[in-house]
Design brief:
single chain, alpha/beta, OB fold (Dihydrolipoamide Acetyltransferase, E2P), Rossmann fold, 7-stranded mixed beta sheet, 22 strands, globular, binds S-adenosylmethionine, iron-sulfur, EC 2.1.1.190, S-adenosyl-L-methionine, metal-binding, 23S rRNA (Uracil(1939)-C(5))-methyltransferase RlmD
């Protein structure tokens, strides 16, 4: 058995060599890895061990003795308390390089790809990597009789009030504050997680960056709404861009934000926004990318990798409200979109109509169930696009892709580890990964999005 060379609560002087996938510095003591938030590769410092596990330990940075040239002052005053961003202390240039390195590393280690044969491009960053999020989703609590809305203090259930988040659109911060203050003035009680009592659990705000339309969602424990008329009247009298006010009811003792029931309180069921020239209707529960500027860059790359000429049949798996589907439809013969959330498919159909797109067809269901059905019905895609959640593609879907043998697969991924795992399956089944483009959808956080082009080996030509 390997001896653990460090002890809890002891101090060590270490050199940081790398970053973990979630942005913590990695140092080693006698080859034993220690993960320390807020430390950067190339730095040295004194740490205190906070926890030991069988194969690794966690530490806290006490002082730096050598700083990286990429260290920068995190501009957010609550950066360390919040935990929503992990890389604000890292220069933006350094963040982009780290994300590319991380993608290369997992493709090689987990995907077993021959990295001499795959091009991983430099991460596509933002010119101004701040105020990019179009959605705020904040828990609500109580302090001295009034409401607070912000974030959970790291490793606690305490809600810290937040007036400004530097990665949010300013409009979102303003509306969250206003809604909180209006509710406070009407004596609205916040939900208390421990006691499972109270009413207002979360406030969500969605902002159409191009349309300027705003949706407000009240997530509440019960389906009543004290002072409903007064609260709504006050909101809409101050904010004419609010087009939709919705209540979602979540009666469960859970840390899942949304419940199953959603009711429109005022205005429309959805707001509109644009990505490029395409107009989208977005309802409260539908997935919609949070960084619209980078979404356009991501979708343009997906379209480039799909290499459409107008003659192709395309499948868009995990299509959400049909965002990528409608981009593809402009250049393909026909596109089939599939998505598990019924409301998102309703939005997708509405979005096709809204844009006069007639060559897109949508189905509700699990991609791993619906696409094998399509195969049985004789649908033969030339290109398959997948954009799964963090857990990646279901095995049954990958199996079906191998059987369907499209000329190209375009894989959009928000988790490089599951992307790498799935690419290995596709490579073993006769496909070859050609290019991977990391896109910085979430600056200052450790997340990275990638779009990859994978081709059928016969189509790729001899190696
Ligand atoms: C990362 S989002 C992508 C959405 C869309 N392509 C976009 O860019 O807006 C993943 C989507 O997959 C959906 N989803 C999750 N599991 C699924 C499954 N097994 N089959 C189909 N869709 C699923 C989610 O509801 C979500 O809309």
């Amino acid at each position: 058995m390997q001896m653990i060379p460090v002890q809890k609560n002891e101090y060590y002087h270490v050199a940081f060599e790398d970053l973990t996938h979630d942005g913590a510095g990695v140092a080693k003591v006698e080859g034993f890895p220690i993960f320390v938030p807020n430390a950067l590769p190339g730095e040295k410092g004194k740490i205190k061990i906070t926890k030991t596990k069988k194969g690794f330990a966690f530490g806290r940075l006490i002082e730096l003795t050598e700083e990286s040239e990429h260290r920068t002052n995190a501009p957010c005053p609550i950066y360390k308390q919040c935990g929503g961003c992990q890389l604000q202390h890292f220069s933006y240039e350094g963040q982009l390089a780290f994300k590319r390195k991380q993608v290369k590393e997992v493709l090689s280690r987990i995907g077993k790809l021959n990295m001499d044969e795959v091009t991983v491009h430099p991460t596509l960053g933002m010119k101004d990597p701040w105020n990019y999020r179009n959605k705020a989703q904040v828990p609500v609590g109580e302090r001295e009789g009034g409401l607070v809305a912000g974030f959970y203090q790291q490793r606690s259930h305490e809600i810290i009030d937040m007036e400004k988040c530097l990665i949010q659109q300013a409009a979102n911060d303003e509306i969250v504050q206003a809604v909180k203050n209006i509710c406070s003035s009407h004596g609205i009680r916040a939900y208390n997680e421990q006691k499972h009592k109270g009413w207002l659990r979360h406030i969500m705000v969605r902002y159409g960056v191009v349309s300027k339309e705003i949706m407000i969602v009240f997530v509440t424990k019960t389906n009543d709404f004290p002072h409903k008329k007064a609260i709504i009247d006050e909101i809409i009298s101050i904010y004419p861009n609010v087009k939709s006010i919705v209540q979602n009811i979540n009666p469960k003792r859970t840390n899942v934000i949304f419940g199953d029931e959603t009711n429109v309180l005022w205005g429309e069921e959805y707001i509109y926004d644009y990505i490029g020239d395409i107009k989208f209707a977005i309802s409260a529960r539908s997935f919609y990318q949070v960084n619209p500027e980078q979404t356009k860059a991501l979708y343009d790359k997906a379209l480039e990798y799909a290499q459409l000429t107008g003659k192709e049949n395309v499948i868009d798996a995990y299509c959400g409200i049909g965002t990528i589907t409608l981009f593809l439809a402009q250049k393909a013969k026909k596109v089939y979109g599939v998505e598990i959330v019924p409301e998102a498919i309703e939005d997708a159909k509405r979005n096709a109509l809204l844009n006069g797109i007639e060559n897109a067809e949508f189905a509700v269901g699990e991609a791993e169930v619906v696409i094998p059905e399509w195969r049985k019905q004789g649908i033969k895609p030339d290109v398959i696009v997948v954009d799964p959640p963090r857990k990646g593609c279901d095995e049954a879907l990958l199996e079906t892709i191998l059987e369907m043998k499209p000329q190209r697969v375009v894989y959009v991924s928000c988790n490089p580890a599951t992307l790498a795992r799935d690419l290995e399956v596709l490579e073993r089944g006769g496909f070859k990964t050609m290019e991977v483009q990391p896109v910085d959808m979430f600056p200052h956080t450790a997340h990275v999005e990638c779009v990859s082009q994978i081709v059928l080996k016969e189509a790729a030509g001899p190696k």
